[in-house]
Design a protein that fits this description.
12% strand; TIM Barrel; 345 residues; 7-stranded parallel β-sheet; homodimer; two-stranded antiparallel ribbon
Chain lengths: 345, 345
């Protein structure tokens, strides 16, 4: 197919700089949309919602009907992986996810990856349906949580500060290594299955890259992510992979250089100039508008958006936020943002 | 007096490298000590405790009786500043501080700095008592919260995520600037008064340096801290000042180069090599052991401590944690840590 029919997101991920840049928004199918809140009421639990191909597809389509976005992202959750491995996950309204914490168990046993993968069949069916439903110029992003981020939830039984997870790393280093290996294999299979079902590229969410000592950052983030990317490639996947190590600070340099990801998601706090100087020359960068500007709107939103556009001019750039859009953002502000981005600097 | 009678902490802050390095521990007077927990019961509220020179002095002395530490730090709280400015502060057991949030007020009025300073007289009396009680080779550190960190509590009425504070910055930029100016002046006066009462050096805690866009980092952290340091100097203070911008990531370079601080507190996540490469040549660095190692103890503690000692060999170094010691750490582990540090690498 002609170059112009390749989705803009994939062109940037192959190293091309586009002006204006392609744009998508982390959590673009989410609670800031009234139609999403309505849709959400049709499933009993959040995971039931994720496991319903029809509901997940509809959730993905909602923002595409409103905004000229360049990508869709599978509607799912990073915790479907432990759920499929037999560590039951549930969501407490207004508080977030819960699991029975591993630290309270004697032995850490998991169902095997092949059986777990069968449980995730509805996710891959959702990918197929979404792929069939979206226009061909819109890229479809599959995703998973990175091994350490998913492990923190499994160890602690919840989000919040990671003191318990970090403590367990010091206390039971071999068990944690084994857990990360299980997650590497299962996550690689999960990502490869999404690509087989139609995903055009992948994003690995390392939502808890912050607060680790340099030694632990290497053990818990760099090595498992490198293994994960290598295993995904071994499974025959050639699509680009965006790594998003939120809160990694100066460690984004090592992450971008060592893990094998195609592109780097940049969080709000990291300056574009530092990111550009830190990654291998020409690596595509994605980010990094402060999500609070979509709550505030007006001149503050326009100024901040233009600052992001301008500051990433030196790299192949995918416009996005530095963190997910919040429920109190407004669809009107997002519409205005995309106008600003598409208008260029 | 002879060079050898100058406290080791001050020698390092003047640029000298000592082996073994001086050591103190953030929150060394704290809940991990049984005698502290007993002492704490003698005051009705946490702020009453801070405002009692006798209790504050006793709290400071407790860890010095157990451990060969090189510094004492005033027992107080960063929120005495808003409290003195007339924004009443209270602490909810197990949850943290509360203030009536500014965002719910129409006008932001504060008592003037001179009157506020008089309310803090018990703090300066505590400094005098502590100074008289400690051996002369132990340095006494005074401290305050940085303007932005204190402002986040005042804006939101509590800690936690800083979305509300950041949103207010976008919505009411001039009001936030004015608030930061009030805090700069009051904090400078507060720090200068501590030095007049006997503090040998100062630390500025920027506990919430994380999550700000580069533009906001400059407005909310770099400029106010620069103003604060300049104002402290204008008030005649010549003692060294340690700046601790926790979570600043790659922005520590700008912070160390632009604010005028004497030394830099390094958080757990920042590698020594990045810190050394980022700060002006020869700047003293303080940090950065993971506090969770003091919960775990054993080989994990020794390995992590030696890694910190070794990795900071290229700079004048003050050994400390990268964050405060936690209530579930043990005094035995801290004793072992200090043995390891004093044994050198």
């Amino acid at each position: 197919m002609g170059r112009e029919s390749v989705p803009a997101l994939l062109r940037v991920l192959s190293g091309e700089r586009l002006d204006p840049p392609p744009v998508w928004i982390m959590r673009q199918a989410g609670r800031y949309l009234p139609e999403y809140r309505e849709l959400r009421t049709r499933a009993k639990s959040f995971l039931d919602f994720c496991y319903s191909p029809a509901l997940a597809t509809e959730a993905v389509m909602q923002p595409l009907r409103r905004f000229p976005l360049d990508a869709a992202i599978l509607f799912s959750d990073i915790l479907v992986v432990p759920d499929a491995l037999g560590r039951k996950v549930w969501f407490v309204e207004g508080e977030g996810p819960r699991l029975n914490p591993l630290i309270e168990d004697e032995s850490w046993r998991f169902d095997d990856a092949q059986r777990a993968l069968q449980r995730l069949a509805p996710v891959y069916e959702a990918v197929e349906r979404i792929k069939a439903a979206i226009p061909k110029e819109i890229a479809l992003i599959g995703f998973a949580g990175a091994p350490w981020t998913v492990a923190t939830y499994m160890l602690q039984g919840r989000g919040g500060d990671k003191d318990v997870a970090r403590r367990t790393v010091y206390q039971r280093p071999h068990d944690v290594d084994a857990l990360l290996d299980v997650l590497v294999e299962m996550t690689a299979q999960h990502l490869a299955a999404q690509v087989r079902a139609g995903a055009d590229c992948l994003q690995i969410f390392e939502s808890w890259a912050e607060g680790l000592s340099p030694v632990l950052f290497e053990e818990l983030i760099l090595l498992p992510t490198k293994k994960l990317v290598a295993r995904v490639r071994e499974l025959g996947v050639t699509t680009p992979i965006i790594g998003f190590p939120r809160g990694a600070g100066a460690q984004i340099a090592a992450y971008a250089q060592q893990t094998g990801v195609t592109g780097l998601g940049v969080d709000t706090q990291t300056s574009a100039s530092f990111a550009i100087a830190s990654v291998p020359k020409g690596m595509p960068l994605q980010g990094n508008l402060d999500p609070q500007t979509l709550v505030v709107g007006g001149q503050a939103l326009e100024d901040a958006a233009k600052d992001v556009l301008f500051s990433f001019k030196g790299a192949p750039h995918i416009f996005n936020l530095g963190h997910g859009i919040t429920p109190d953002a407004t669809p009107e502000n997002l519409a205005r943002l995309i106008q600003v981005v598409k208008g260029g600097v």
